[in-house]
């Protein structure tokens, strides 16, 4: 085992970057901050846009890093010890802590997930086309799916991964949006198996997906519910399904509209059957949140004004991620308003708990945030896409 180190002074930012090599591992980071450990990866820190139509792929040849541990449990429940709306303790510390991503290694995160051990997973959608894993209290993140900087459609590649989930057996699921498929990685495997959609084939048949975004799972992890954005519908699949198997239409599917019988580019979705039999779905192009019983012909709008964007407390602007807690409070990532809104149960008035409504990269700002997740202490994690980071907001 040997070490080689080089020090680079980046004049444009004033950062002092340390580059080291130990065996086949490359370590990169700010001397005064954490090192990122990525096996055999060639790093480029050029920011990338967030959508397929405008994104530039950084072409580097690399292999995925190895993980230092395997995940053995997960949770679908957003836990609160006391109802934040009843107790009046609505606040999270609005000064975020960057737990993933840095100026030397941007991680434009979309969907984020934490398991029961508070291990963080983040889908790096348009930066390097991988899924990152960060153990609780760890410094170094590892790549657990995708080839760093190399988008593609084979079993070891991803193309605009959007969301990630890890079940209680350690199997990982990824919505591979650009390839119109959902990939399953069995117990730490780097080779994905397509369990929904047909690889690189967008379509509206029930065995196809069209640029799906986020997903959610039932409490037994038997079914997953996929927000099939391009088809304006939610489709249910078995988690042991295979490519080309028909899904079951459970919401929408009759075109993009802002009525309660339709969905309009569904993006975020959450299902918490311990407190409700309904799906909670964000309509990205509809600027709203709708509550929908799976299989019903219509839903009920619960936040935002359908078809009307805005920035006051009753409006949303292209919402993305969503979570509900055990008290039926909703947490909505308000993408174009650069904030996170809390809607207490049975209220359509949002309370801003993260971000200040203006795009920026300070610790109190967000820039086109996407995904949301909570750890066991109800600390909040946000995929802060354009800033290339995951921000942690401590529960007060």
UniProtKB/TrEMBL annotation:
Keywords: Repeat, Signal. Transmembrane segments: none annotated. NHL repeats lie at residues 145-188. It holds the Pfam family SGL. One of its GO terms (molecular function) is zinc ion binding. It comes from the Eukaryota. Residues 109-244 form the SMP-30/Gluconolactonase/LRE-like region domain. Residues 1-16 form the signal peptide. This is SMP-30/Gluconolactonase/LRE-like region domain-containing protein. It comes from Adineta steineri.
């Amino acid at each position: 085992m040997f070490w080689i180190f080089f020090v680079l002074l980046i004049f444009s930012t004033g950062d002092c970057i340390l580059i080291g090599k130990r065996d086949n591992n490359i370590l990169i980071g700010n001397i005064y901050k954490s090192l990122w450990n990525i096996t055999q990866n060639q790093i480029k820190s050029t920011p990338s846009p967030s959508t397929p139509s405008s994104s530039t792929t950084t072409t580097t040849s690399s292999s995925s890093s190895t993980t230092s541990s395997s995940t053995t449990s997960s949770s679908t429940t957003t836990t609160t010890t006391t109802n934040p709306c009843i107790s009046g303790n609505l606040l999270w510390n609005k000064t975020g802590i960057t737990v993933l991503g840095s100026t030397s290694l941007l991680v434009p995160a979309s969907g984020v997930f934490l398991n029961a051990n508070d291990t963080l997973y983040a889908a790096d959608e348009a930066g390097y086309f991988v899924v990152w894993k960060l153990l609780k209290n760890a410094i170094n993140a590892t790549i657990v799916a995708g080839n760093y900087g190399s988008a593609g459609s084979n079993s070891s590649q991803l193309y605009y991964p959007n969301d990630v989930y890890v079940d209680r057996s350690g199997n990982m699921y990824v919505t591979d949006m650009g390839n119109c498929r959902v990939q399953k990685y069995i117990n730490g495997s780097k080779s994905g198996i397509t369990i929904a959609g047909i690889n690189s084939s967008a379509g509206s048949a029930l065995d196809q997906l069209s640029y799906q975004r986020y997903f959610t799972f039932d409490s037994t992890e038997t079914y997953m519910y996929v927000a099939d954005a391009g088809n304006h519908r939610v489709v249910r699949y078995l988690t042991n399904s295979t490519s080309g198997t028909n899904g079951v239409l459970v919401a929408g599917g009759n075109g993009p509209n802002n009525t309660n019988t339709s969905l309009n580019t569904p993006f975020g979705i959450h299902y918490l059957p311990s407190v409700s039999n309904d799906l909670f779905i964000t309509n990205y192009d509809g600027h709203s949140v709708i509550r929908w019983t799976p299989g019903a012909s219509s839903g009920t709008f619960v936040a935002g004004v359908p078809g009307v964007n805005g920035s006051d407390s009753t409006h949303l602007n292209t919402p993305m991620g969503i979570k509900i807690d055990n008290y039926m409070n909703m947490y909505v990532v308000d993408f174009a308003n650069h904030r996170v809104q809390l809607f207490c149960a049975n209220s359509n008035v949002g309370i801003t708990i993260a971000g200040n409504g203006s795009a920026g990269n300070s610790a109190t700002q967000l820039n086109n945030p996407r995904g949301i997740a909570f750890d066991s202490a109800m600390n909040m994690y946000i995929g802060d896409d354009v800033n290339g980071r995951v921000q942690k907001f401590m529960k007060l």
